[in-house]
Specification:
With 237 residues, the protein is an alpha+beta fold. The chain has helices at residues 3-26, 42-51, 61-75, 88-102, 176-184, 217-226, and strands at 29-33, 38-41, 107-111, 116-121, 124-130, 152-160, 168-171, 194-196, 213-214, 232-236. Helices cover 35% and strands 21% of the residues. 24% of the residues are buried.
């Protein structure tokens, strides 16, 4: 190799390495999971937008990041749940289907007097379930152990996968109003209010909970496929 060609090669190599390093340094972190140890980068989003030929991202970036968050977990594994090799195309398709399912419901409404739960999407009823309540369901919950289900606006803020009932979603009771009400009356505010299935698969005909909202196990299995953590729940009289 001639000297001139050699030095040209060296200069181009240095330029290429510097360009790669610069791109890596400029690759912005869009989401980072510190527990599961994975991230969604700007380059991941760019790849997805190119793959789907998306040009206009106005108001949709958060949705695309959610899809990539779901897909990245699967991409970390070489094999899917069906023991078939994982591909970019397959995990993106699964994540998009999951996103559509996740957005079928954006609110849970409970009418205690009707013993009904309604899954809503922008005020439209998607699904209706019969429910069971506590032994003393009429009226607002006042204190721990009164057998009442609270009334108001809350959030399904966490889940319990293994417990005495078939799956459960925790309701964010008590809120500040609930706590202040109990304190003003010198009462101990209640806690641990859930939407859950039945105990050990048993069928129940009457109100039997301690103030929680109970579904049949069949309905709870359907509920947890349609309703996700952080979904708002409104409980009315």
């Amino acid at each position: 190799m001639k000297k001139s060609n050699f030095w040209s090669f060296v200069i181009l190599s240095i330029f290429f390495l510097n360009a790669c390093q610069s791109n890596a340094q400029n690759d912005k972190v869009l989401f980072r999971d510190t527990v599961l140890k994975y991230s969604v980068m700007q380059s991941d989003l760019d790849q997805y937008l190119t793959y789907r030929n998306i040009i206009d991202t106005t108001g949709k970036t958060k949705d695309y990041i959610w899809i990539l968050k779901s897909a990245m977990l699967r991409l970390r594994s070489k094999w899917g749940l069906n023991k078939k090799p994982v591909t970019y195309e397959s995990v993106i398709a699964d994540a998009e289907a999951r996103f559509i399912q996740r957005n079928m419901v954006n609110k849970v409404l409970v009418i205690k007097s009707e013993r009904k739960m309604y899954l809503l999407k922008d005020s439209n009823i998607v699904k209706t379930y019969p429910i069971a309540l506590g032994p003393n369901p009429i009226g607002q919950k006042q204190r721990e152990g009164d057998g009442k289900t609270p009334e108001g606006n809350y959030t399904l803020d966490w889940q319990r996968w293994n417990g005495t009932t078939f799956h459960s979603f925790h309701i964010s009771y008590p809120n500040k109003v609930d706590s202040a009400r109990a304190k003003a009356k010198g009462l101990q505010v209640g806690s641990n209010i859930m939407v859950h299935g039945t105990s050990k698969g048993l069928k129940r005909k009457k109100d039997w909970t301690n103030g929680c909202i109970a579904l049949s196990n069949k309905d709870m299995a359907n509920f947890r496929n349609l309703v996700f953590q952080d979904t708002p729940i409104e409980i009315r009289k």
